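User: Hey, my collaborator sent me this sequence without any context and asked if I could get a structure. I don't really work with proteins. Can you help?
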Amino acid sequence: MPIHTVLGPIEAADLGRTSMHEHLLSDLRIWAKTPTELPPEGVEMGPELMAYLRWNFLSIPENIVLHDPTVAAEELAHVVTAGGSGVLELTLDGMGRRLAELPEISRRSGVHVMVGAGFYVEPTMPDDVRTADVDALTELLLTQLREGIDGTGIRPALLGEIGTSYPVTDAEWRSLRAAARAGAETGAAVYTHQSFRGMAGTEVLEVLIEEGMSPDRVIIGHLDEFWDKAYHRDIAQAGAVLAYDTFGSDFYYGSADLRNPTDAERLEMVEWLLSEGYADQLVIAQDVWAQANLRRNGGRGYDHLFAHRPRHRDHRRRPRGRGPDPHPPPPPTPGASMTDNTPTAAPAVVGNAVLIVVDIQGGTGTVALGDGGIPHMGGAAERRPRVRRTVDLARAAGVPVVWIQEVHKPSLVDIGRELDGAEGPHCIEGDDGTEIAAWLDPRPEEFVVRKRRYSAFFGTELEIVLKAYKAETLFLVGGLTDVCIHYTAVDAHQHDYRVRVLTDCVGGSSAPAHDAALEAIRYLQRDALVTADEVGAWLEQRITAEVSA
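Assistant: No problem. I've predicted the 3D structure and written it out in structure-token form, which is a compact way to encode the shape of the chain:
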């Protein structure tokens, strides 16, 4: 089943690491409270206001409005740099949803954005929703799931966040039952919003199941805001998914009794849930919904979970009872060698280095290459954030980035013998998919080298560019490993450059072809195979050295 994003459907395997509950453009001033402590005069929204907002989160209405799509795109882009790939945007009608602006935010940030459908808590419901019966609401949700929301053509990835108060109101029960019926009919998951004022999650789950929902398609939200082991265990034992989805917030809502838990407290919940054997029934997120959550204002941003995920897992306990080990040995990284050619030593870099990005095309779409039926191995979603991070670090370290773009005339007069093999017509001049992927965003001062053969050296100005940079070591990322990466690496070797292929930032036409190409490259240069983390560490050392100097 495809995953519906605001830019269209993608395969589940291409989604990558995703935060399951966020807001990009929203208006939640319904939660604003009269301040008991007046805010400081003349202090604009920003880090200087954070001390006040940490204790008075709801006392400035401006704080709980996310209104700027440019800011949203800039903040969201940090997700890619931190190793993430997607976010689930759960702003609904009555919450300030601005659906039409989300595709551009997704394109500019390079992040997959998915949305929900349904109705939030009763104070946000339009009158016609508040008074509608379950059947009418169900039909509305089915239309949105099948045809898109409000004429935008954007189809939701799930139903949610379906709002419930404590206690749950009659209108909210009808909304919940409608979501359950629509979810049961279509297979869509249902994500609920639970109040921190009480334990309604078990009742909510019972009603959803009563209306036909399979419990493993139900996500009970905000459970980290009401910590009760028995309560959480009941929901887990019933088979539902628990959402600990407010990481990165530790604010007070006007009194000592109304506060977010700290991340340390949330991690204790996670540790307990894993120890109970429910690792496969947990989703996490940050629920960014206010100015104070944004990096620019002193918050932790959309990338908090991705940037601070554990790197070493040996200290974690294996859960008892049921469920798989939540921390098994990691599988082979998509894009890395499946034989024994993934290196462990630091990259051997001699002289000036240049990062060469080969054929990562697709324009504003979601494909990785401007292709025509060319086969690709899986793992593109995992490779993408590593490439993005490598580009960002290279720029920060003063390492030039050179972009390679394969282009052919519509007449195919320049394509040569490429159609004699497995490839069909591809990378046609003028097609959006032929342009460099929008999530990479080459800068005006960076060279874009257009090629008409597999090697980036053949018939291009690449050699002139590299001589201008006095390059000696070339980092290669992109695709395909067994075609354009391989031929470019061979020609670089013949020109006496030191070649370093980032094995987890390249993908081949198939996994065996990818492995064979990497082995062939290593035959030419024993130090040729490196990883994104190794190159990243080297680049970070350069950045640190430059700052120190």
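In plain terms: Confidence is low (pLDDT under 50) at residues 310-345, 366-372. You can pass these tokens on to your collaborator as they are.
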